User: What shape does this take?
Amino acid sequence: MPNMPSEVILDEMENLLNIASDFTRLKIMYAISEREKSVSDIVEEVGASQSLVSHQLKVLRKANLVSTRKEGTRVYYALADDHVIALLNVVYEHVTEE
Amino acid sequence: MPNMPSEVILDEMENLLNIASDFTRLKIMYAISEREKSVSDIVEEVGASQSLVSHQLKVLRKANLVSTRKEGTRVYYALADDHVIALLNVVYEHVTEE
DNA sequence: TGCATATATGAAAAACTATTCATATAATAA
DNA sequence: TTATTATATGAATAGTTTTTCATATATGCA
Assistant: This one.
């Protein structure tokens, strides 16, 4: 049973949750959860417009949830660390296990 | 490394994350994380208006994240299950551990 | 250089949500 | 009944965010 975190921590928690709580971004995170993918691959897998995916990748980048690597004209995105997967898993379990 | 969930599951995940991703609701969830509390207790601990707390409790209720018990004029709220705490913990760790 | 492809971005539109204010309901006590 | 306390709620406001559209930038190739 956790204690009430400080306002600063709560703020950061709110921010992380906000970023995770979007349909398109959830799809993007799952799309790159096994291995890095290029933007066009992500666009295809997620089924959203190129512009939207690019905008949402920017949001994920700004929050340091993804890392990028440029190769020619392609940009490859990957999840920044395993915390993200842990979060996705907890949420997935809550939704499916009941 | 998880697979892409179905649209329905993603939708439910988005919904749960949306509900968790609010400063006031986070505070409320922490306030009742150790034991049930009455609305007025929550109002005091969270430091928000009675109206706002009541509105947000309704959101949490609708999502089945809290349970309620009425006793006289008081209504006591508690977390519905431990999944919620697991979620809070994962987010807390992500925010503090780096 | 000019052309094609990949990605990013600014601005506007559309949709949504938190918060406040005023008020309603419910229970209890005098 | 009237008054008081606890909680809930409808409506409006204020602020934010997602999505689209048009366009810009960057890279590679002919």
Observations:
- Chain A has one domain: 7-96.
